[in-house]
Design a protein that fits this description.
The protein is an alpha+beta fold. It is built from nine helices and four strands, in the order αβββαβααααααα. α4 crosses α5.
């Protein structure tokens, strides 16, 4: 693909230009989702995009259809959408993550994501984000000598008092007492 062709496609994505629908599809590598050029979701980082001539090519490359613009004219099954959500959280938990940001990344509404996530996983998206962050914090507490505040920042909870409160709520221990009560594991989690 020439640079001008790629630039034309990128500009169509930025403008949500429906006249390019069915001429190409774009996929977002960080979310694993592909869309029509007219999709109203927030434009992704240009470096994270791949272009495909057909929806089948995007699906064959492992991308799932967007729930917002329905590029295959069918909905992605809810379990696949939630699998994409959990994979996104698993890889981005250390960043600022809210229900709204997660829904935007997955091309859905916050309300629909919350309702579907809870039905499929039996917990809310925010509870899942917290669970992933606390599990990562437990690993860091056991495998590093980082301070509690440094660990909180690394797992996406830079407010140390909030991190300690959430950690205690989820584990019944403060981070310091958790570290003290559990020996170093060399990478293995203790239950």
């Amino acid at each position: 693909m020439t640079d001008s062709s790629q630039m034309e496609k990128w500009n169509a994505v930025l403008r949500n230009d429906a006249s390019y629908n069915d001429q190409f599809y774009y996929a977002v590598k960080t979310t694993g989702i592909f869309c029509r050029p007219s999709c109203k979701s927030r434009p992704p980082n240009h470096d994270n995009i791949a272009y495909f001539d057909t929806a089948d090519q995007a699906k064959s490359a492992g991308f799932r259809p967007c729930k917002r613009c329905k590029p295959t004219r069918e909905r992605m099954p809810d379990d696949e959408w939630i699998a994409a959500a959990t994979a996104y959280v698993d890889h981005h938990y250390m960043n600022v993550l809210s229900l709204e940001a997660l829904a935007e990344a997955l091309h859905g509404s916050p309300y629909h994501l919350h309702r579907t996530f809870k039905r499929v996983k039996q917990l809310t998206p925010v509870a899942y984000i917290q669970q992933v962050r606390i599990e990562a914090a437990q690993r860091l507490l056991l495998d590093t000598d980082l301070t509690v505040s440094d660990i909180g920042a690394r797992v996406g909870l830079p407010n140390t008092p909030y991190f300690i409160t959430l950690f205690k709520k989820k584990t019944n221990q403060t981070p310091a007492s958790y570290r003290k009560d559990h020996p170093k594991t060399n990478g293995e989690m203790l239950e």
